[in-house]
Amino acid sequence: MKFLIQRVTEAKVDIDGKTVGQIGKGYMVLIGVGETDTKEVADRLIRKMLSLRIFADENGKTNLSILDVKGELLLVSQFTLYADCHKGNRPTFNGAGNPTLANELYEYVISECKKRIPVVQTGRFGADMQVSLVNDGPFTIFLD
């Protein structure tokens, strides 16, 4: 499982010209699910993501977590995080989980995050989405 976490001041997901998910200050997270991923793997990444201290404290030091600042989450499924570009110029996605497993674990991540974060918005699994964001910093973290 892979999480690409971007600290944002705002982010949104549009599908067919309609906004389906939108947040203010928090994380926009691209989530990729691999073929061998489990709920235990998801739990570990969720714990790490929510504990990351990448928001500034009163002294300007990155010392606060998303929980400390009451940040929001925008969670977007993204199988292309499993792109393999080692051979040729066309990526393969053989390491990505099958759609049934990937959707199940994506929905699991959403439900677990909602237990700790009051505002959790999402994209739509398998949809053609347009994601807009203002990356704060910029600050981007890759967890796998």
Question: What would you say about this model in short?
Answer:
The protein is α/β, with parallel strands linked by helices and 144 residues long.
Please name the defining characteristics of this protein.
single chain, 144 residues, two-stranded antiparallel sheet, D-tyrosyl-trna(Tyr) Deacylase, Chain: A
Describe this structure in words.
The chain has 144 residues and is of the alpha/beta class. It has a single domain, classed as D-tyrosyl-trna(Tyr) Deacylase, Chain: A (3-Layer(bba) Sandwich). It has 2 helices and 8 strands. Strands 1, 2, 3, 6, 7 and 8 form a 6-stranded mixed beta sheet that branches. Helix 2 links the parallel strand 6 and strand 7. Helix 1 packs across helix 2. The longest helix has 16 residues. The chain is globular. The model has no long low-confidence stretch (mean pLDDT 96).
Helix-strand blueprint:
Blueprint: E1 2-15, E2 18-23, E3 26-32, H1 39-51, E4 55-56, E5 62-64, E6 72-77, H2 99-114, E7 120-122, E8 130-143
Parallel strand pairs: 3-6, 6-7
Antiparallel strand pairs: 1-2, 1-3, 1-8, 4-5
Main beta-sheet annotation: 6 strands, mixed
Structural class estimated from helices and strands: alpha/beta
Indicate the percent of residues in helices: 10-25%
The number of distinct helices, counting runs of at least 4 residues, comes to 2
Distance from first to last alpha carbon: 6 Å
Percentage of β-strand residues: 35-45%
CATH structural architecture: 3-Layer(bba) Sandwich
Segments where pLDDT lies below 50 for 5+ residues?
none
The rounded Rg comes to 15 Å
- Overall geometry comes to globular
